Amino acid sequence: MIKGLYIHIPFCEIKCPYCDFTSFVWNEDGLKKRYVSALKKELSLYKELDFNLETIYFGGGTPSSLSPDLLAHIIKFIKENIKTEKELEITVEVNPKTYRYQDFKIIKDSGVNRVSIGNQSFLEKNLISLGRNHKPEDTLQTVEDCIKAGITNINLDLIYGIPGQTLDDLEKDLKIYTELPITHISAYMLTAYEGTPLGTLVKNGCYNLPDEETTLKMFELIDSFLEEKKFKRYELSNWAKEGYQCKHNLFYWTHTEFLGIGVSSWSFVNNLRFGNTKNIEEYLELVEKSVKPIKFTEELNEEKKREEEIFLSLRLKSGVDLNLIKNKDIIKDLLEEEYAAVENGRLVLLAKGIMVLNEIAVKLILS
Ligand code: SF4
Prior knowledge:
Layout: E1 2-9, E2 11-12, E3 24-25, H1 29-44, E4 51-60, H2 68-81, E5 84-94, H3 101-110, E6 114-120, H4 124-130, H5 136-148, E7 153-160, H6 167-179, E8 184-189, H7 197-203, H8 212-228, E9 232-235, E10 238-240, H9 247-253, E11 258-261, E12 266-269, E13 272-276, H10 280-288, E14 294-299, H11 302-314, E15 320-321, H12 328-336, E16 340-343, E17 346-349, H13 351-354, H14 357-366
Parallel strand pairs: 1-4, 1-11, 2-3, 4-5, 5-6, 6-7, 7-8
Antiparallel strand pairs: 8-10, 9-10, 12-13, 13-14, 15-17, 16-17
The structure holds iron/sulfur cluster (SF4).
């Protein structure tokens, strides 16, 4: 049963230098309409699947680079063609410079009840370092307009580990975040991905990211500050007020079936994990010929499922079922070195472990 639908909107006004997502600076309305037609057609290619949608998530790129009418049009199409639950969580990611009150009103009327704002920081120097195209006041206005239009479930993204950022800077940001009437905060450590301009600058020694000790202190500050302000961490990068965890993202980490449509999107259906092409021209051409634009498929056998479950549940505050870990000596080492703790029969990562999640996951998987 497919409970979640992810829709990738790959357009952005600019390409941020650290960005590793599939996104294009592509502002022609005609092309955007062509893309939206392709999304609808792609969804129609999955008619045979068993849907009972509980969540729809518009991610990107910048979904608010589409007009609110186009987003409303897609939602109407989904509701008319796919079985959906009455209580549907519909999230739209929004750039602070795009939507204002009237735009939020239109998407609210179409059913959107959750907005995720790509703020990253309220300090101008951080926004400049990150190459963002908005100012702190744009986000404040976005939050105000969103609430005025009746959408009160709001996430703000935060990035830490920015070159030049101090713990005091981070604390200033956290104060502003927690004084706003929002329900959710996603905090990501800045990563220098290979192939991005930031990745190249770091590789060539022109730009330095904070060292491991500083990023660990930053994570600990975020976690303790937010917990004190009643934002509880439920995943390694996500904190929410009581009752406001993102249902859609929890589907990813709990092996619930979801379909992803749009260029570069991923799906998990019938024990298959499959991904679409990252090439937008190829995506459009295939879908317009009524061909599913899938480029990668992997069937999950029992062992693969165990590996995925370890990897995904390590991210969650509730941790990994100890029965999935074959070599118990690894658990002992992780506890002794304070990378993890055992709670309710599950292995839960501590801050130090979260910083090296991938290494720990590999050890546990190979155990
Ligand atoms: S706005 Fe988001 S998706 Fe677009 S380029 Fe910047 S980081 Fe990437």
